[in-house]
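FAQ: What does a ligand-bound record look like?

Like this one, built around iron/sulfur cluster:
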Amino acid sequence: MYRTLPEMDAALADCRACPRLVAWREQVARDKRAAFRDETYWGRPVPGFGPTDARLLLVGLAPAAHGGNRTGRMFTGDRSGDVLFAAMHAVGLATQPTATHLGDGLRLLDTRVTAPVHCAPPDNKPTPDERDRCRQWLVTELELLAPTLRAVVALGAWGWQALLPALTAAGWETPRLKFGHGVRYPIAAARAGRAPLELFGSYHVSQRNTFTGRLTPQMLESVLAQAISAARR
Ligand code: SF4
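The answer part, i.e. the structure of the complex:
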C-alpha cells in the first residue's frame, strides 16, 4: 500500500482511527504544560524516527503527552528520551546524546525508533483495542524495513507483547517468547524476502525504571551494543 517509509509516515500523521486518543492528543496540545506554553504542540500521531534503511529497530510503547506529542519526534523532549538517546550515543547509534526538538541536529545511525501505538494515551495506557488498531502501522513499518532489518529491541513488556503479533503479520515466526531484560531470541523468516532477525528485550526507559535503578544506563547500553552488533553481523 505504501512504497516507502516517508510515504507511510505522512499518512500515519493524519490517522484519526482512535477517537479517545485523537481527543486526548489534541486536548493536551491545546492545554499544554506551563513550561511549554509558548510552543506549538504537534498534537498528531508521531511517526518512527531514523534512517529508512536501518538495520536495528527499537520499539517502545507510545509517545509521551508532553514529549513526542509536543515535539513531533519519537522519544524527543521527555525524560525517557534523555536516557534513551544518551545510551544510544554512548554505543554509537546517535550523533548526539540529547534530543530536544525537531531540527536539533540529532541523527540516528543504522537505527530507527518507533512505537506500537503512535498517539499519546492518557496515563501512558493505550487500551487493547487501540493497540490492535495501531498495529497495521507497525506491520507496514516492519515490511518496509525488511530489506535491511536484522535486529529488534523491545523496550518493556508491553512493547514486547505488541511487537510479537506485528512481527508475525510482517512475515517472521514468533512462537511464545517470554519477555525479560537482556533476553535474546533468534527469529526465523516465514516469508520470502525476509532475513532472520535477532530479538532483544530491555526494560522500558520510563522514569519508574530509571529513577529507581531498575534500569541503569549500563544495562541499557549493554543491550543496545549487543543488538547493533547482531544487526551488523
Ligand atoms: S493510535 Fe494509531 S491507529 Fe490510533 S489514531 Fe493514533 S495512529 Fe491512528
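Follow-up question: can I read anything off the structure? Yes, for example: The chain has a mean pLDDT of 98.
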